[in-house]
């Protein structure tokens, strides 16, 4: 649905004055949300990141905004325009660095998708930022895949963060999902998690895995309806189905890994991590290493306006 059609439907349902007020509230919310990440927006981006029907009472009052050099931002934050341009330049360099490591990861048959996440996915990385990487694995192979990925990167000297460290320009493999467990839980759905999912940039996308991940998490449209294109269920099935042909060797290899190596790989890594786990998610189908609850932090900031 185009933005124009959406506007006309709202106009018919609510009337012009209410629609104007709603649009101003949405714009304020969008600019304030992105200000949390020091990220001014172009007019096009204000539309792309317009909040959806889940917008309730998060924004308690109107905020004052300004515009400079084609970017909108909160009043008094004009310095962010130049900072964003600098971070875009920094991000380009980091993305090229990421591609080298991702190139090795992509050769692993049980890797289905590798994507950039976090600030780098928005081209908003700072000089001292690391490189957040999200990996989806073939069903039943997550922990064996993770073990082999780490071994491969270390063998070829690809810098990576480990043990909770955050060193600049190093890969941070902080989110792993089994392709059988892609749907975000209802209790973790909010504007922050929806934004993080919508902004990911797939660098490796085997057999329509990215499209499938976005489709099964289509709830993000309730938060950011214009942010990402989501294929229909039929089109997603067609894309995934076409890609499944001629992959018998990969299929049987995955079964072998799942039956022989995966249980051992999970036990070994879980035993190593057990004493260090705080709020990280470590299950047979998920490995999410986010020691800080950024969703909670961001939502708290939103309600403090």
- Number of strand elements: 8
Content-based structural category: alpha+beta
How far do the termini sit from each other? 32 Å
Radius of gyration: 21 Å
Number of helices: 11
Strand order of the largest sheet: 6-3-4-5-8-7
State the order of secondary-structure elements, H for helix, E for strand: HHHEEHEHEHEHEHHHEEH
Largest sheet: 6 strands, mixed
Q: What amount of the residues lies in strands?
A: 5-15%
Mean pLDDT: 87
Uncertain runs with pLDDT below 50, 5 residues or more?
14-21
Structure write-up:
With 305 residues, the chain is α+β, with helices and mostly antiparallel strands. It folds into 2 domains: 3-81, no CATH class; 91-291, no CATH class. Helix content is 48%, strand content 13%. It is built from 11 helices and 8 strands. It has helices at residues 3-14, 16-35, 43-48, 79-105, 118-121, 142-155, 191-198, 209-216, 233-243, 248-273, 294-302; strands at residues 65-68, 71-74, 111-116, 131-137, 171-178, 201-205, 281-283, 286-288. The strands form 2 sheets. It has a 6-stranded mixed beta sheet with strand order 6-3-4-5-8-7. A hairpin with a 2-residue loop joins strand 1 and strand 2 (71-74). Helix 1 crosses helix 2 (16-35) and helix 6 (142-155) packs across helix 10 (248-273). The longest helix is centred in the first third of the chain and has 27 residues, at 79-105. It is globular and about 60 Å long. InterPro entries: NT_sf.
């Amino acid at each position: 649905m185009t933005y124009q059609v959406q506007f006309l439907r709202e106009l018919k349902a609510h009337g012009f004055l209410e629609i104007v007020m709603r649009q101003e509230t949405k714009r304020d919310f969008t600019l304030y949300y992105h200000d949390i990440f020091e990220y001014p927006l172009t007019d096009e981006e204000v539309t792309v990141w317009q909040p959806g029907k889940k917008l309730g009472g998060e924004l308690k009052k109107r905020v004052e905004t300004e515009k400079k050099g084609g970017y909108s931002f909160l009043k008094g934050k004009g310095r962010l325009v130049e900072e964003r341009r600098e971070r875009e330049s920094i991000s380009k360099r980091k993305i090229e660095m990421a591609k080298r490591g991702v190139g090795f990861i992509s050769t692993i048959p049980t890797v289905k998708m590798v994507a950039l996440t976090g600030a780098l996915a928005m081209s908003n990385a700072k000089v001292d930022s690391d490189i957040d990487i999200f990996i989806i694995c073939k069903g039943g192979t997550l922990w064996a895949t993770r073990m082999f990925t780490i071994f491969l990167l270390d063998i070829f000297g690809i810098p990576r963060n480990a043990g909770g460290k955050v060193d600049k320009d190093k890969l941070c493999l902080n989110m792993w999902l089994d392709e059988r467990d892609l749907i975000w839980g209802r209790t973790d759905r909010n504007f922050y998690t929806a934004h993080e999912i919508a902004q990911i940039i797939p660098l490796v996308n085997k057999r329509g895995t990215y499209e499938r991940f976005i489709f099964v998490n289509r709830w993000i449209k309730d938060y950011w309806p214009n942010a990402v294109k989501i294929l229909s269920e039929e089109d997603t099935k067609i894309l995934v189905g076409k890609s499944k042909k001629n992959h018998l060797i990969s299929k049987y290899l995955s079964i072998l890994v799942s039956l022989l190596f995966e249980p051992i790989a999970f036990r070994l890594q879980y035993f190593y991590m057990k004493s260090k786990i705080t709020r990280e998610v470590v299950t047979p189908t998920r490995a999410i290493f986010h020691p800080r609850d950024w969703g909670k932090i961001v939502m708290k900031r939103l309600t403090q306006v």
